[in-house]
Every structure is written in C-alpha cells, then in structure tokens.
Design brief:
This protein is of the alpha/beta class. 19% of the residues lie in helices and 30% in strands. The chain folds into three domains: 88 residues, Immunoglobulin-like, CATH 2.60.40; 356 residues, Alpha-Beta Barrel (TIM Barrel); 126 residues, Jelly Rolls. It is built from ten helices and 30 strands. The strands form five sheets. The protein has a ten-stranded mixed sheet, covered by helices on one side. An eight-stranded parallel sheet has the order 11-10-9-8-7-6-5-12. Strand 17 and strand 18 form a beta hairpin. Helix 9 runs parallel beside helix 10. InterPro entries: FA58C, Galactose-bd-like_sf, GH, GH30_C, Glyco_hydro_30, Glyco_hydro_30_TIM-barrel, Glyco_hydro_b.
C-alpha cells in the first residue's frame, strides 16, 4: 500500500451539505463525517479516507454516543517546544526547506496547525550551546540584583525568528514560558545544575522580576507570553547534567506571591501556572527528599492551598510518572482552577527498530495524551522537542533517547515521527477555543484493548471526534449523535479523527445521575460502575445470563425521563438477550414500564414521559454470555 504522508493532509475544509469537498455521491441534507487515519505501519499518515454518512437507526456494535449538550473544559491548543536544540536543527536546513518544515508544523491548511508552544526560559537539557545559560549570567562570586546584565540576545538568532514565523502561520498560537533554572547566583551551590533558590526574600523578589523581564523582552521581540511557570519539574533534585532546581512548595509559593502583582501591572494577559511536573511524584524524587523534609507527594494540592493560589490560573503536568487520572482528581478538589499538560517525550530502547519506536510511541501517546489527557480536563497537550536530529540531539546532559515531532535525517531530509501525528490528530482539527463534549469511551489509559475516544465542539459549531483502537486487531464500532449513526472499522493500533459540520441532528438532553446509587444481583464487579458515567468501567454479572438477574438504581430524587440507554460497552455479546424495565416511586411498589429483546451493545428504550425514583432492569431469559452494563443513561 502506498504510504500517505503530510503531503496528503493539505487543507481542512469542513463538509457541509452540497459541499464539493466531499467525495462520492451526495444527497440533500445528508450528514457526513470526513475521516483522517494514521496506522502503526505508516501505511496511512493523517490520510484522508472517503467520508462516512450518518444513517438512522441503531448499531449492534459498541457505540460511541456523542452528547454535545454536556460540556467540559475549553481547549487552548496542542504542540511542543522550540527548544534551543530544535531551533539549531531547523537552522541546519536551507531557508526554503526550513520554511517548508515550519509550515508543516504550524500551517492549519498545509500542515497540522500546532497551536501551543512551551518555551524554555534559558537553557534546558536540549541546547546546542557549548554551555548552559540563563538570561543573567555573571562570573562566579558576583551577583546582579539590579538585573543590569539581563538579555535575551541568545534567542534572537534562531529561536525568536522561528517563534515569530510560527505566530504568523497560526495567529491563534499560545505560548508558555518555563525556566529550568534561575541564574546560578540566585541558588545554593551557585550552579544551574541542582540546588535551590537561596532562602532570602531579596532573592525571591529578584527572581520574580527576572521572569517579568523575560515576558517583557519577548513581547518587545514580537512574541507575547500567554502563560508562565516558575520552575520546570520542581521535585527533580538530581537532574542529569542539565539545569534543574529543587523548589519546594513554600519557595514556589513565595515566588508566585511576588510575581503575581508584578505581572498584573507589567503584562496582565500573562497567567501563571503552578507545579509543572509529573502526574505523581516520581519514586526517585521521593527518595531524594532531604532528611526531615516532606516529599510533598501532593505538591499541586498543597500549592493551591497557599495564598499564592489567588495568582494561579491552574496547574501544569508532565507524563513521566503516574497517569492522567491525577488531573481529574485535582480538578475535583479545585474545580475553579484549570489544568494544562505541558511536557512528554517519546523515547525508545537502544535496540528498538524504527518500526517499534513509531508503533510504541503512537499507541502510548494516543491513549495517554491525545485522549487520556483531554478526557481528564487537560486544556492543552504539549510534547517536548518539536524537532531533533537522527541521534536524538543535540542535547547537553539529560535525555539521550528522546524523539521529536520532526527528525532531521543524515541525508538532509526531514521525517515526521509518531508525535507529529498524535499531536496532529488534535491540532489540525480541534481549534483553540473548542470545548470538549461528552462521548462514551471504552478504553483505558492502562490499555484494555478497547476503542477509546474524545470529542470536541469547535468555535464554528463543527464536531471533531478522535478515536483510537487500542487492540492489535481491527475493531468495528459505531458513532451515534441523537438518532443518527454510522459504523466504522479501524485497523489495530490506528488513530483517527472524524469531523462533521454544525449539525441539524436532534439529540435528547441527558439527565445527571449524580447522587444515584445502585445494587445488583449477582453483585458482580459492583453495581455503581454502571452509573458512574464512565463506559470503560462496567457492572457485570460474572456468570451466564439467567432470568431474575437485575440492576436496581435509586435515583436519589424522582426524575422524569422519556428514554433510557442501556450501554453494554465494548465487550461484544454482553447485552441482555431479553429484559424488563420496572419503575417505582419508593422502591417498594413496582410497575413494568417496558420489555424487550437486546440485539447489540447499545439498547435504547423509548417511553412516554415517565416519572420514577427507582429503576430496575431484570434479565428475563438465559444466555451463555455474561450480562454487562457499562453505562446507564436517562434522557428527557
């Protein structure tokens, strides 16, 4: 099969009825979704396939139910970092080739429309310079509290021109600035590598002013800074030969309390994010905690509990320890604060083949970042280097096995890596300002071999649905919006984005089951899993279907509803072959509301307006299959 690459990605034109952009025959008012697919064998790379038409009626397949009325976080964007190394790699190219590479990244029509960049403030491990640097370095033993030596001149040759070009190509680009270290003279040990800020209010004041000067200098150079963090990975106490700073909560809070008022005056549109480290504290960071000190394994929560929280827009996370569920846990504890995901790099073993690296990176990033981060309240998905050479460099200390979105090959050509596609399946189709909307998803970030997805409503009203087949084998699924459905089959490991225009498809309003409780016979995996709003979990009988098995739900308060969805999830065949729906006002007196037979994974029961405080679903026949309910939904 011919490989289809970025050249086949040209032009995002949303299909509307009668549009000439869609291939194949058209019918008046027919709703269609355009489809782009990336496969693990590189046979398709953001390749646009023929569009798929919505039809009326249900499917027997696991069904992704999209509900545009239920909304979550607003998205800022998706991208990576133009590190010093990335800039150096891009500047090895001839001007025309460099322009083409940059367009492939930032141009929405002719590339993937990268919309978020996280820029190091000074040196990181990915620098092409001979020595690490900040913007105010002075000889050992000297200080510069007046910041007279402050300068961003290092960035003027390559980094700032690339940033200005990126902003021209994508005016909606969001930029976050992050330091790997304050200047050495502000730190214990007088080194960029390791140590802490000196515990001195004068140092905290000066460091805050240093960060403000960076924001002002970049704005004067034509690159406004939208977000700022005060320290990359503040719990990484032993960076491997590259800049890093141990910054406990009390010190980060002290800097932020000084930085907030300064930024409000100097750059009021620049917001501060806290933490900027892993989903959970890495065991190595716990082990390196100085004796007698708290390892602060709940660092983000602690920071949001300090007075500094008033200056924080939210929290930034990395991927190198833990999983994305930490984002939801923090959101539930602090729902008024946002969550951004700001760093993850693909990596590989020394003997991995190029095929293994591509497949492993594509599938891990697809489920954990592209979908996992966004389904767990992340407003951004940002990888690490936007470009590296074929050796994974240049770098000065730090990661020797990291990969980028682009790779400069020894022959001078530029290749696209898995991260280009895991970001591209979002950035090309999910525009800044899009809102995540509800969609049932059956896969887990830990891998369970199922279909997983995430859906967004764009500012123009179009819908983008990103789907990943975790399994090694092809999997068929359906997508339902209201009464309209289409079926699709994805190859094993593939990632796809479906886009359809602002729709006239009607969809019923879903009722919240917050406060509801459930019991079941047999107890199986736990009845509450059927009403937790998460289709990747399920109540299951754990035994063959027999008459009398049931799931009973106490709605907590009487609800009036017109339809009921019984979703058996991604495990084919685990639906009730015959069932009875009973309703009750009090859990004592029951009335049969409906009976029926199941034919597939999703059963929708339409009723006259029905008011009840309790529901009971009962199996009324036998089958060798187990009975599972992944999600029970009520609609007005």
């Amino acid at each position: 099969m011919m490989r289809r690459g970025v050249a086949a990605v040209l032009g995002l034109v949303l299909v509307v009825p009668g549009s000439a952009a869609a291939a194949g025959p058209r019918h008046h008012h027919e709703a269609r979704a355009r489809v782009w697919v990336t496969t693990t064998d590189r046979a398709e790379l953001l390749h646009e396939r023929a569009p798929v038409a919505f039809g009326r009626g249900a499917s027997t397949q696991p069904t992704i139910t999209v509900n545009p009325d239920q909304t979550y976080q607003r998205m800022d964007g998706f991208g990576a970092s133009i590190t010093d190394s990335s800039a150096s790699v891009l500047y090895r190219l001839a001007p025309r080739a460099r322009d083409q590479a940059v367009r492939s990244l930032f141009d929405v029509k002719n590339g993937i429309g990268v919309s978020f960049l996280r820029q190091p403030i000074g040196s990181s491990d990915f620098t092409a310079a001979a020595e690490h640097y900040t913007y105010d370095d002075v000889p050992a033993g000297q200080t510069d509290f007046a910041l007279r030596h402050f300068s961003v001149d290092h960035d003027r040759a390559q980094i700032l021109p690339l940033l200005r070009q990126a902003r021209r190509l994508n005016p909606q680009l969001t930029i976050l600035g992050t330091p790997w270290s304050p200047p050495a003279w502000m730190k214990t040990g007088d080194s960029l590598v390791g140590g802490r800020l000196k515990d001195d209010p004068k140092i905290y004041d000066t460091y805050a002013r240093y960060l403000v000067k960076f924001v002002q200098a970049y704005a004067a150079a034509g690159v406004p800074i939208d977000y700022l963090t005060v320290q990359n990975e503040p719990q990484n106490r032993k960076p491997g030969g590259y800049p890093g700073t141990d910054m406990p909560v009390r010190q980060q809070a002290a800097v932020i309390e000084r930085l907030g008022p300064l930024l409000k005056k100097a750059s009021p549109n620049t917001k501060i994010l806290g933490y900027d480290h892993n989903w959970q504290t890495h065991p190595g960071d716990v082990g390196s905690t100085p004796p007698g000190e708290d390892p602060e394994t709940d660092y983000p929560d602690q920071l949001l509990g300090t007075p500094a929280a008033k200056w924080l827009a939210g929290t930034a996370y990395h991927c190198y320890s833990g999983d994305p569920s930490a984002q939801t846990a923090l959101h539930q504890a602090h729902p008024d604060k946002g969550i951004w995901f700001t760093e993850c790099s693909g990596s590989h073993g020394p003997d991995d083949t190029a095929e293994q690296v591509f497949r492993g990176t594509l599938t891990w990033h697809a489920r954990n970042l592209t979908i996992g981060v966004t389904r767990n309240w992340g407003k951004s998905v940002v990888n690490w280097n936007i470009a590296l050479d074929s050796t994974g460099g240049p770098h000065l200390g730090g990661c020797g096995t990291c990969t980028g979105l682009l790779t400069l090959q020894p022959d001078g050509t530029v290749g696209t890596d898995a991260e280009y596609y895991t970001i591209g399946h979002l950035s090309k189709f999910v525009r800044p300002g899009a809102v995540r909307i509800a969609s049932t998803s059956f896969g887990t970030t830990g891998w369970n071999g199922q279909i997983m997805d995430v859906a967004f409503r764009n500012p123009d009203g179009s819908t983008a649905l990103v789907v990943h087949n975790q399994n090694d084998d092809p999997r068929t699924f359906a997508v339902a919006v209201g009464t309209h459905t289409f079926e699709y089959t994805l190859p094993g490991g593939a990632l796809a984005t479906f886009v359809w225009p602002r729709s006239v498809i009607a969809h019923p309003g879903e009722l919240s089951l917050t406060g509801a409780t459930a019991v079941a016979y047999p107890p199986g995996d736990g009845a509450t899993l059927a009403i937790d709003g998460d289709a990747s979990t399920r109540w299951s009988s754990g035994a063959a279907q027999t008459p009398g098995q049931y799931l009973q739900v106490d709605l907590g308060t009487p609800r009036t509803f017109r339809s009921l969805a019984i979703d058996s999830g991604g495990y084919l065949g685990d639906y009730a072959r015959a069932w009875q729906l009973s309703v009750s006002p009090d859990g004592q007196h029951w009335t049969t509301a409906a009976t029926g037979t199941g034919i597939g994974q999703l059963t929708t029961v339409n009723l006259h307006p029905t008011r009840a405080g309790y529901l009971r679903l009962t199996s009324t026949t036998s089958s060798p299959n187990w009975w599972s309910i992944a999600d029970l939904r009520l609609y007005r």
